[in-house]
Write a structure and sequence with these properties.
single chain, alpha+beta, Macrophage Migration Inhibitory Factor, two-stranded parallel ribbon, two-stranded antiparallel sheet, 4 strands, 32% helix, 31% strand
Length: 59
């Protein structure tokens, strides 16, 4: 069973999340041969104040 944990800075709309879930599950189904219903996806929306690259915070 494929499991995806996507982390990103900021917020997504419900529509964007639905599109990501659709695209990811279809890709994994095609590549692995497993039904898309087997794919689990967790989207972590992280505030920029909690995300840094090097010594620079995004928030």
């Amino acid at each position: 069973m494929p499991y995806i944990n996507l982390r990103l800075v900021g917020k997504l709309t419900k529509g964007q999340k639905e599109e990501i879930a659709k695209e990811f599950s279809e890709t994994l189904s095609r590549v692995t041969g497993k039904p898309k219903e087997y794919t689990y996806l967790v989207i972590d929306e992280v505030s920029g104040e909690n995300w840094a690259k090097g010594d620079k915070f995004f928030g």
